[in-house]
Specification:
There is one protein chain. By secondary structure, the protein is α/β, with parallel strands linked by helices. The chain is built from 8 helices and 10 strands. A hairpin with a 2-residue loop joins β9 and β10 (219-223). The relative contact order is 0.19.
Length: 232
């Protein structure tokens, strides 16, 4: 459908120049919370890289926030990525800058110029992830869960319609992972921001329900009640 924020139709997903998934169909709409699950090496992260235009889409059709993955030019890729919020497993914070400075850097890199507006937006996103009191801290002074919440704050700075999260709880213990999932769930329910999360943790899918896509046998399947019963 035309109003899908992310769509892949009959897409061949590549990794390192070789096809790893065939005939992939995926649609994500405003307000959706969706997972891509599957064993290691089944192509989950390859889908992620395709959606951020790190890997080219040469077969099939794909769009992300209005950008065609088939026709996108190199100079357009930064604009595609700015329309998304991206969260990585390893946080990817600037370790020599405070929480505030990390967020300020991201804002200025995406065109923000007025100091008052930058300060206000940083305050808003830190409040959203319950870290306002840690604004002055350096990343090494934060726990893993707090660092990931800073990464989520960075991801929502520009009010993206979609957050892509690649194993955002992969390096966290169960309790800390829950706190990160609560933040993502709250953002999704409060703002309608769609979330597509790659994970190997099925318990998270059960605790925080959403659409579930599974990478398996070189394909991507949307699991429903019948499909889940079939694969178990």
């Amino acid at each position: 459908m035309d109003n899908a924020l992310i769509s892949l139709h009959d897409a061949t997903i590549q990794a390192g120049g070789s096809a790893v998934l065939f005939s992939v169909n995926l649609e994500l709409y405003e307000g959706d919370f969706a997972y891509i699950i599957g064993k290691v090496g089944t192509g989950k992260t390859s889908i992620f890289r395709t959606l951020i235009a790190e890997s080219p889409l040469r077969e099939g059709d794909g769009t992300v926030c209005g950008f065609s993955l088939n026709k996108i030019k190199r100079r357009q890729i930064p604009y595609l990525r700015r329309s998304l919020g991206v969260v990585f497993q390893d946080f990817q914070l600037l370790m020599d800058r405070s929480v505030t400075e990390n967020l300020e850097f991201a804002l200025r890199a995406t065109g923000w110029k007025k100091d008052t507006e930058i300060s206000r937006r940083i305050s808003e996103v830190l409040s959203a992830v319950s870290l306002k009191e840690k604004a002055h801290k350096m990343p090494h002074q934060l726990s893993g869960g707090e660092q990931q919440r800073v990464a989520i704050a960075r991801a929502i700075l520009n009010n993206p319609k979609v957050i892509l999260a690649d194993e955002p709880t992969g390096n966290l213990d169960a309790e800390t992972a829950d706190s990160v999932m609560e933040v993502l769930s709250d953002i999704n329910s409060r703002t309608g921001t769609a979330i597509l999360m790659i994970t190997h943790n099925r318990q998270l899918c059960d605790k925080y329900p959403g659409k579930i896509f599974e990478c398996r046998d070189e394909s991507l399947k949307l699991l429903g009640n019948d499909a889940q019963a079939e694969v178990r």
